[in-house]
Amino acid sequence: MTARPPAGLTVTGLHAAYDRLQVLHGIDLAVAPGEVLALVGANGAGKTSVLRSVSGLLKPAKGTVKLGGTDITSYGAEKIASLGLAHVPENRLVFPTLTVEDNLVLGGYVRRKEGGFAERRAEALALFPRLNDRILLAAGALSGGEQQMLAMARALMSDPSVIILDEPSLGLAPKVVGEIMTALGILRDKGLAVLLVEQNVRAAFKVADRVMVMDRGRVVAEGTPADLASDERVRAAYLGGSSTSSSGVAAPVTPKAGTAAGS
Amino acid sequence: MIDLLQLVFAGLAQGAVYGLVALGFVAIFSVREIVNLVQGEYAALAGLTAISAVGAGLPLLVAILVAIPITIGIAVLLERMTIAPVKKMTPLTSIILTLGVSTAVKALMLLIWGPEAKGLPTFPGSDIVLGGVSIRSQELWVLGVSAVVAYGVIWFYEHTVRGKSLRACAEQPVAARLVGISPRTATVVAFAVAGLVGGVAGIVGSPIYLSSWTSGLTLGLKGFVAATLGGLTSLRVAMLGGLGLGILENLVAGYLSSGYRDAVAFVVLVLVLLFKPHGLAGKSSAVRV
Q: Which residue among B164, B171, B179 places its CB closest to the CB of A154?
C-alpha cells in the first residue's frame, strides 16, 4: 500500500448524465495524498455518480479527472484500476461464491505479474484482522461488516494511491462503523488519498479532514468538519436529517463531532 | 450381463464426447449468460479440418495440432464478430443470434466439405476384450483424452487466477471491472475454452461417430441437454451429465430400439425444464463451477 508513489485525485468541471438525465453539474474537487475528503448529502445528490465518473464506470460528459499527473477521464474502469485508483462500491459487491482468500487474490488482479502479493495481503489483513478467521469461507457467508472489510481489503490488494468508498457504513452497527473509519484514518496516515461518500455524517466528520456537501449535482458547501458543523445554515439545510436516514444512528451534527475530527 | 456392460461402456465413450461439448456451454454461460448454439459446430469444424489436413498428407498428430488452434481461433473470431458488438445481451438474444451463426457455419461447412460424413483414421492402439466386453481402442482414447481435458478445464476455472477472474466476472460484473478484470477479455477466454473442448470432442470422436456438416447439430443438442442438468453453470455436473446421457441413450437403443436413441435427449431436456428449470430460466446469481 505504500510502494506506489503518492498521487492525489483532481476533478475539474465534472458533468455527467445517465442518458438525458444530467446528474452532475460541474463538480470541482481535489484530494491530496494523506487526506480524507468526505462527500455528504442527501440521496440523489450525485455522490455516487461522482465516484462512478472518477473510477471509469460512468463516462463524464464534460470535465477532467486526474490521478496524480495523469488525465484518466477517458479511460475505462479496468485501466484506471491498474493505475492505482481503487473504488470500493456501494453494497460491497464481494464475489459471493469465491472464498475470502480468492477475493483478495482477485483484488490484486492488476498486480498479478508484479509480485509482492504476500506483503500486500499481510498488510490488508493487518488492517482487518478478523478476516483472518474467515479466510476460507465463501465471501457471501460473511456478515455485512465483514463483507465491507473484505471489499476494502480487496481494493487495497491493488496497491492504490487513491481509494474512493461509497457508503461503507451503510447498514452496519455503530461499532463496526467505528472500525471502518479507524481503518480509513490509518490509510490516510499511510499517505493514501481517500475520497469518502457517506450519509452517516457523524462518522464521516470524525475521520474527514475536509467535507463537501452536495445537493442536486452541485457542491453547495465546503470546509473542515468543524466549520460546517458550526454553520447553522448548512446544518439545518443539509446535515440535520440526512445522517439518520441510512444508518439508523441518530447523528445530528454537534460541535463535538466537529472537534473530534481534530485536524 | 455382458450385453449390459458392453452397452454401458460404449455409452460412456459416446457420453464423454457429449460431456466435452457440455463443458463448452458451461464455460461460456457461467461467464456471460450466453447460450452459445455454435458449440456443436466447433466439434464438426475441428473434425473436418483435421480430416482435410490428414488428406493433405499431414501425420494424424500434426493434423490434430493444426485443427484445434484453428477451431479455437474461429470460436474467438465469431465471438468478436457476432457477440461483442451486441450492447445489451440477454440469454434469449444470445440464442437467436448464435442460432443464426450456427446455421451460417453449417452452410459454409457444406460448401467446403460437401454433404457426406467422413471419419478421421483411428488413433494408434489395438482393441481389447475385458471380461467378455470388447473395447475399441478409440473408445479408450475418447475416455482418456476427455478425462484429461475435463480435469484441465475444471482445474483452470477453480484454481487459476485467470479462471477465478472469469467466475468473478459472472458473479459481480461491476466489481470485476473495478479490480481490473476486463469483461471483454473474460469473454474471449471463455470462447477459447469452448472452442478447445468442442474441438477436442469433434476430433477424438471423429473416428467412431464421424464428422459432417450436420454432426454439430446432434452433438450440440446432446451437449446442451447435459449442460442443463447442471443449470448451465456446473462444469462437473455437465461432464457427468454427458456421460449419463451417453449411457442412457445406448441402453435405450440396445434394449428398446435404436430409433429411440435421439429421443432420449429430448425427453431428458423436457424433464429437466419441467422439474429443474432454474438453471435456465432464473438468474444464475450464484454460479457454481
A: B179
Q: Is A106 near chain B, with CB under 8 Å?
A: yes
In a domain, A204, yes or no: yes
Contacts of B16 (CB under 8 A, 6+ apart): B142, B143, B146, B147, B242, B243, B246
Task: Identify whether A131 is part of a domain.
Answer: no
Which site among A97, A101, A157 would you substitute to test the B interface, given the most B Cβ atoms closer than 10 Å to its Cβ?
A: A97
Decide if A82 touches B, using CB distance below 8 A.
Answer: yes
**Rounded-to-integer distance, Cα B53 and Cα B66, Å:** 8
SS3 A1: coil
Q: How many Cα atoms sit within 13 Å of B187 on the Cβ side?
A: 22
CA distance B158 to chain A (A): 9
- Say yes or no: A135 contacts chain B, CB-CB below 8 A: no
* Residues A220, A216: Cα–Cα separation, whole Å: 9
Does the residue A76 lie in any domain?
yes
- What is the model's pTM? 0.86
- pLDDT tens, position by position, for chain B (289 residues)? 788 999 999 999 999 999 999 999 999 998 988 999 999 999 999 999 999 999 999 999 999 999 999 999 999 999 999 999 998 889 999 999 999 999 999 999 999 999 999 999 999 999 999 888 889 999 999 999 999 999 999 999 999 999 999 999 989 999 999 999 999 999 999 999 999 999 999 999 999 999 999 999 999 999 999 999 888 888 999 999 999 999 999 999 999 988 888 899 889 888 888 887 765 434 444 444 4
Query: Which cell goes with A235?
Result: 446544518
Please report residues of B whose CB lies closer than 8 A to that of A78. Answer: 177, 180-182
A107 occurs within a structural domain: no
- CATH code given to domain B2-281: 1.10.3470
Whether the CB of A97 is below 8 Å from some CB of chain B: the reply is yes
CATH number of the domain where residue A60 is located: 3.40.50.300
Bridge partner residues of A27 (DSSP): A14
Residue A196: give the domain boundaries.
Answer: 9-91+162-256
